[in-house]
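chain below, 467 aa
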Amino acid sequence: HSIIGPNGAGKTTFFNLLTGLLPVDKGPIFLKGQEITGLPPYEFINRGISRSFQIISIFQQLTALENIRIAVQSASRHRFNLLSPADRLQDLLREAEQIVATVGLQGKEEVIASNLSYGDQRLLEMGIALGTRPDVLLLDEPLAGLPPTERTRIGKFIRQLAGKVTILLIEHDIDRVLALSDRITVLHQGRVLAEGSPEDIQRSEAVQEAYLGSTRVSVQEDRKLAEAGIPREARSPLLSLNRINTYYGKSHILHEVTLEVREKEVVCLLGRNGAGKTTTLKSIMGTNPPRSGQIFFRGLETTRSSPATIAQAGIGIVPEGRRIFPNLTVEENLLIARRERGANRWNLEKVYEHFPKLKTLRQRRGEHLSGGERQMLAIARALMGNVDLLLLDEPFEGLAPAIIADVCNILEQIRGETTLLLVEQNAHIALGLSDWAYVINNGQIVYSGDTQELMENEELRIRSLGV
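prediction:
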């Protein structure tokens, strides 16, 4: 049974409630007919619920067998009995060895966990969860960061395991979810949006709307640079990513990503939650640089440059979550980001011209602003750095439709003055604002083309971005 949903739908929160890591405010949880609401986390395990995590949680300095044996011993009735018979310990060891074989790690029992491949570490974590003898196994993004061959291997194992234990699966690889699942529940904004077979979910218009976004914007065509008589190929590249590969530890997130952003255009990078959008921005900004491939800005390589150097070169970012200074006023937030560069196109006067609401709020502290006001401040603050390229990470997340329209109007106004790279999950908004689109899926670019083609081709849009 898979749990899917857009970014922020409540999937991991749901797992945290099912394992006692978060308290339930209202409503009961039943396991095998018995209520387990409010029990401490260890009691959830004792009653038969175990889980894996988004970020691998194993004992890195112990062997694979030792990791699983600890879990097996923790589930034993005799775990606190120092006088347990020796043959009982042998039984536990045999059980641990059997689990090692079940997860496909035979021959690697004595390998230190930190030396295992990332895929094997994922299997080991599942083995640890199985060692507690669960009736229900919760798997939180077990395929994240794996190359395609490893995804196939672990996907097959999950399907085989389903014959022995009930599995609840959170996963962003929609194609694998559809292939693996008997039933799927779709969460959206903390509520159950739909539930049914994979075929039912694919046919649901409400589910497609949740993934593609329901809010739409109308952009004047004369604002789009593609309509201004300047062919895209005639504009020089401002930013180029050439076959970059980016990792989080052993987790391979971006695979040979190549894209270009040209002068004075708006480019959107679309993709489902967990596809690699934010990681692409982190690679560009140097906060998580790629291990291979190259990044060029204005013809100069920035692949190994520090974030400070990249910012000084003229790239600014509006991060997900806004990250304004809550204890400073609006004007102080703006002034602290001011940077003298080149023509110094942006100053307080110009910012207030484009953001009149911020002028009326200039003495209000950041902590007292609404979500929409904070987003406007985050955009204005980035512009105060007089940037040549502005990266925007999910700028419409959590905003009401009326506020989204206000932010879109602001982006329309500044699009002719600076180049924009927009990362967004709401395809309708992003495509309405952009000249060129890229779609990323499982860390790979799967579409590059004019936004009009993607807007008009519903089948392509659903295949790339929907369910």
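DSSP finds 19 helices and 18 strands in the chain. Residues 63 and 431 are 49 Å apart (CA to CA).
thats it, cya
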